[in-house]
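Section: protein folds

Sequence with per-residue tokens
===
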Amino acid sequence: MSLLIVVRPAVATANLTALETRWLQAGQPVIAFARAQGLPLDIIVQPQEAPGAVPLALGFEAGRCKLVLSLRGNAQAEAVLRGVPPARQGAMVEAMTAHEIGHCRRYAQGDWHALPRGFVEPPSMQRGKLKRLAQELRDTRREEGYADLVALAWMHGRHPEHYQEVLAWMRGVRAGGGGVGGSHATQAWLALAENGAEFDGAASPFEQAQVLWQMGLSGDKGP
């Protein structure tokens, strides 16, 4: 990474643009939750223009999660929320933040690209029987599926009135991300969260997501 602004906690500072401030404020409840759960999380704002970059992304370095905002000069920041009324955009950013926190937990727990205990991969899908690129696509898609479910579990628990709207938005984003076997084609998992009832109960968003994620692994037919 190049020159960075590191923000602790995630609140507005003199160095942040109005857009960065809005995104950070929208994600603040998720960030506070993640830190309360003991996740090693740093917030990083790219100060240079980043055209074409993923507006909100998660990296992992030296044992710590890096939640990176790349909003300056980046049309993708507008594109990802295109069609969402301004009054609802904060909910989508909060869901995106929860998605990235799902990635953080998988990294922090040492589970990245690992299957749940007891899950048996079909012989045709086992490592060693897939070409390297197909294996990388599959592993990434599965992590994206888990993170999408964490985002939905979070929204169901904190903002149930926005749940269906967020789910529809996520489906639209995923539908535009390539074919069924693509790295971000999480439709198999989104289909399991149709009405949100799967996220009832007192378990954490991570635990709730884990249940549906494992169910979706069996239906993941991509390469």
In short: The mean pLDDT is 87. The beta strands are 5-7, 41-45, 56-61, 64-69.
